[in-house]
Amino acid sequence: MRQIFGVEYLTIREAAHEAGVSPARLYQLRKLGVLHCVPLQGEGDHRWEYYCRPGDVLEALATPLPRPAAAMAAPKKTRSLAERDAAARKILREQFGMRV
Question: What is the DSSP annotation of 18-75?
Answer without folding.
Answer: HHTS-HHHHHHHHHHTSS--EEEEPTT--SEEEEE-HHHHHHHHHSPPPPPPPPPPPP
